[in-house]
Design a protein that fits this description.
Length: about 130
């Protein structure tokens, strides 16, 4: 998958892929989330996709279910720990609590962080069209 990253002005940096645009910004303008916030949100939303899929497969209602994500920074500003707490209403069947956890742990973002990719950063001179 290819993404195009561009600089629309100010401290904005946007990513374009599959017809979507993910806008990011930095304070003080703050017109969009910061890139690191988007990265962190991808962990919780990915886990949420798997929890949602689990519930849909079993015709379980998702009303009242939410994931609370807590990010714990280290001294260097990087994240040392991420907690995902799946809140369910009292009516959610107890026999599925562990399965919800297992579903959330299937998250592709989480698995990628556990097995990080190799990065290669290069430059390329492109003549104006």
């Amino acid at each position: 998958m290819e993404m195009i990253i561009d600089f629309p002005g100010g401290a904005r940096v946007d990513a374009h892929f599959r017809g979507h645009t993910v806008a990011t910004d930095q304070p003080p303008a703050d017109s969009a989330p910061m890139p690191f916030e988007v990265f962190l949100a991808s962990v919780g939303t990915c886990a949420g996709i798997y929890v949602l899929g689990f519930c849909r497969q079993r015709n379980l209602p998702t009303e009242g279910i939410r994931i609370i994500q807590r990010n714990y920074p280290m001294m260097n500003g990087l994240i040392g720990k991420i907690d995902l707490e799946i809140e369910v209403p009292p009516t959610f069947p107890a026999q599925y609590h562990d399965a919800l956890i297992r579903s959330a742990e299937l998250c592709k973002v989480k698995k990628t962080l556990e097995n990080p990719p190799v990065f290669e950063v290069t430059t390329k001179v492109v003549e104006p069209a």
